[in-house]
Amino acid sequence: MQKSIERIAGESEGVSYEFPLFRFAGTDKVAPSAYLQAALHAGELPGVVAIDALMPMLAKAEAEGRIKGNLTIVPWANPIGRAQYHFGEHQGRFHLGTRTNFNRGFPLLAAPDTALLPDTTLGSVDQRLKTRLVQLSLGHDIVLDLHCDDEGLAYLYVHTSLWPAMADCATAMGVDAVVLWSEDTAGTFEGASIMPYQNVPDDVAKLDRRVATTVEYRGILDVDGALAAADAEGLYRLLVARGVITDTTLHTPGPFAGFVAPLENIDMMPSPRAGAVLYDVKPGDRVAKGARLATIVHAPGEADGRTEVFAPQDGIILTRRSRRIIRAGEDLLKLVGDKKSTDARSGTLED
């Protein structure tokens, strides 16, 4: 294993940002390669601790000569967001300087060629970080971007061109659900990882062996040693299943047992009023159309001070908010419906 330090110059003299990069050299030049990063949204830590638990497993595989493909690991991909605090509260989702989501605005290339990327010496510091992350990841067969939701199940976002070929990965990782998408106009990191392969020859795209996904490891408070160990084992199983690592003790993943739905089936359920949220459902619950999902207490103590929110269709609760205070129009949860939502959204679901 080789460790190096990446440095991103700040926007004033004497300021810079650093993050560590770990590389494992594979012994087989034709084996698939993999890139893993965590905490692009810098406060989302389940992926960070999963990588921490994975590293000893990789070190053991390296010592035993079982790493066949090149591996690049970025345990904390966003030093800018990691340093952002406002009145004592960590702010890791948006760059405070540009008000841009750290997982938006990545360059969407027409082909997998780093020569097409913007100049890494130009632009705002968050944009230069994004360009560098694409530089580091582009060309790998497997690209995993580890995130988490507020409160939720473990699930993957997968481009339709990679499904069902990626079903073995979902099984190996032990996730509960897969959300399929086809359009990226916002420039997510996942989009930057898969869109360059959409309009190139098959021998370049190699979609049958390609993996690109945003991994949502449950909720933001699920930073736990046992969960980290389980997630690390899932990552390891994926790397073995796809031939990056050899391990004869593991079996080939079976069929995916979770549920799969297109992004257009998701109802986000905007709150009709501002107030306190009383949930009737939790992630994983199956609900019927018309079931009460939550109550908004907007005028406490008054006879008409509560507003109820009901399911617009049958489906499964994928996520809900971790905070119980809400403004009118903010989304309450993600309901994965059995049918297309009447409020179907293309591209990203949230800012």
From TrEMBL:
Domain Succinylglutamate desuccinylase/Aspartoacylase catalytic: 32-192
One term of GO molecular function: metal ion binding
Originating organism: Rhizobium loti
Name the record gives this protein: Succinylglutamate desuccinylase/Aspartoacylase catalytic domain-containing protein
Gene3D superfamilies hit by this protein: 2.40.50.100, Zn peptidases
Pfam families the UniProt entry points to: AstE_AspA_cat
Cofactor(s) the protein requires to work: Zn(2+)
Superkingdom of the organism of origin: Bacteria
Record keywords: Hydrolase, Metal-binding, Zinc
